[in-house]
TrEMBL record, chain A:
Every Transketolase-like pyrimidine-binding domain range: 11-186
Entry's EC annotation: 1.2.4.4
Cofactor: thiamine diphosphate
GO molecular function per UniProt: branched-chain 2-oxo acid dehydrogenase activity
Protein name: 3-methyl-2-oxobutanoate dehydrogenase (2-methylpropanoyl-transferring)
Key words of the record: Oxidoreductase
Organism, scientific name: Parvularcula maris
Pfam family, one: Transketolase_C
GO biological process: branched-chain amino acid catabolic process; response to nutrient
From TrEMBL, chain B:
Needed co-factor(s): thiamine diphosphate
Family, as annotated: Belongs to the BCKDHA family.
Phylogenetic placement of the source organism: Bacteria, Pseudomonadati, Pseudomonadota, Alphaproteobacteria, Parvularculales
Protein's UniProt name: 2-oxoisovalerate dehydrogenase subunit alpha
One Gene Ontology MF term: branched-chain 2-oxo acid dehydrogenase activity
Domain Dehydrogenase E1 component: 93-385
Region (Disordered): 1-34
Domain of life, source organism: Bacteria
Organism, scientific name: Parvularcula maris
InterPro entries noted in UniProt: Alpha-ketoacid_DH_E1_comp (IPR050771), DH_E1 (IPR001017), Oxoisoval_DH_suAlpha_N_dom (IPR022593), THDP-binding (IPR029061)
Amino acid sequence: MSETLSNTRKMNMIEAIRDAHDVAMERDDDVVVFGEDAGFFGGVFRCTAGLQEKYGTSRCFDSPIAESGIVGTGIGMAAYGLKPVIEIQFADYITPAYDQISQEAARIRYRSNGQFTCPIVIRTPTGGGIYGGQTHSQSPEAIFTHVSGLKVVIPSNPYDAKGLLIAAIEDPDPVIFLEPKRLYNGPFEGYHDRALKGWKDHEDGKVPEGYYTIPLGEAKTVRGGNAVTVLAYGNMVHVCQAAQAESGVDAEIIDMRSLIPLDLDAIERSVKKTGRCVIVHEATKTSGFGGELMALVQERCFYHLEAPIVRVTGWDTPYPHAQEWDYFPGPARVAKALKKVVEAV
Amino acid sequence: MDGFQRSGEAESGARRGLRVPQPPARPGEAPDFSNVALGEPGKLGLPPLDAEASAFGVFHHDLFRVLGEDGAAKGPHAGDVSDQELKSALLAMIRTRAFDTRMLRAQRQGKTSFYMTCTGEEAIGVGCALAAQDGDMHFPTYRQQGILFANSIDPEAMMNQIYSNKKDPLEGKQLPVLYSFREQGFFTISGNLGTQWPQAVGWGMASAIKGDDKIAIAYIGDGATAEGDWHQGNLFAAVYKAPVLLCVINNQWAISTTNAFAGADLNTFAARMGSYGLPALRVDGNDLLAVMAACRYAAARARAGHGAVAIEFLTYRGGAHSTSDDPTKYRAKEELEAWPLGDPIDRLKAHVIAKGILSADEIEAIEKDAETEMREAENRAEENGLVHAGQGAPGEAMFDDVYAELPGRLIEQKKEAGF
């Protein structure tokens, strides 16, 4: 945190994200915000509420339903010198913009040898656990982590969401900012049959007012432990905490927060200590980001490993509707994996 | 022949089956441009700067032309371009062609793997560039090198890029001809077609957001208008009234496919852009005077806050698509000679001679000078190395500018690669 402020306010993740926009727009006239329903209405999830009224229609505006056009125009604005913060309504709908993101935003600095840059942030709600079915639940982070030139960030709580978003907006490189929509209103541990807790009683629901940043590329250890390292991000950070409690395994849980850049030191330090590793994400398994994490742990910690690395992920199927809780990697599945890994000889 | 075929038609005479467009002529057939609406020089005058988009309907299917076949400028826009500007334009067009000729030969000699000429389309890049102002930004495709000659680039810098050598301004990262010259208002070219179209609109939107008077100029070929980005860019430009010139270069061909595969035989590109609510013009792309008059008008209109202007430039791709292409395999050999709008350089030459601005001898001297300039530039570029001779840009440059700062994993990979 680059600036310490004593005043904090209880915020849910939506309010924290909205506040990050507000702080960034207040500090820098070049920050502009747009997307489908992001203007007058303030976004379908309210993440840009009130910004148009406060900063005017030139700084915060609605867009046509055209993801490639949204990102393409944002790239042009960034080339001019603005800092566009773009909203794609659901991560499931980012694929029409994949050409502009992967071949343009990610490459402009490289292909122009630094003559042109693309300081853009593409925010998009990600993840499942909301009965969103096939096109309101996906976790597409791996199609971005595979692209050279992009940064990929995914917060798991209001405090991080605000600090990471301000850092992303100030970052000189294009950032894909994935927001687990299941966490917008409260920490969700995967117990779908229990009432939602809300952020008000959670430590990370206390958000400093004003400006602060959380550097991209720094993981956070949310629970220290010695038996096994758990690498997680987004929704799964909370699921893993519940799974730890359920299993009683002394797990060290690391919230990666940024996937690119990745905090390799944090991973290495922890796995070398515990000798065991479980990787958890909602995204489908094959070629998911967990495969990359697994490879890195294997490359860097091989002689410290006491058991095979285990991945708990979404199944290799499209995200189903009725089978939501058979698909979503919940505490029971993660707890089982934790026990399996610590019991392995 | 109605310009397309239907499967099964020959046997049954029925109208069922898939319509597959065909060009007017294939190799061995006589060129046929009878379906191209050619307009009449001097007939059309441009509307007032603040005219509604609906006032442009007349330009959708007619053709805005200034230069007559006799070399004289005609109509209300005959005097829009000064004698000095005509000389500058002719010089830039001649230099563009001399550069292309030189680089085509360099490719055949194995000095570079790849090149693309803009033969027959020189008036468009040059005219658009001369109508723009310092600070405006062109978002070109790989066939608007004329912009760079109008904006006084040193051809050696372009050749260094083509040769990927030690002085390549892009340090060997890009395929030949995918230039980037920020200082000349020339946006980094991408291999992915159409992407620059909404980017240009966004650049214009940014200018509008900041209350600036700079404009963006977007270019796209006829074939690439089929890309989704063309449609989205048109829509955004119209919706936000972005200060941008949207230039479709209709050169009849997208590699081997006729522009009918982009719907050109169903409606003009100007009319289609007009359907988005954009003021749209269809302009003789081989008539430098018409190109400049239309671009000047469009730029002034955009700068005054009246929003985007769309222009379809009608022209013909005189050369092969690229050095990897052989057009004799798919189009009539005599098409270039038969193209009714002629050659842009020859037409401008005839005009400046008729006007007494330059004599034929003076033009010949200019052409000789351009050849010499390009030969000398090529010699200098060759001294900086040829990638194919193992004298490419430095290896360690490969890792720079992926991000603003080299992240940890790239530092590791750079070491692993031996740098």
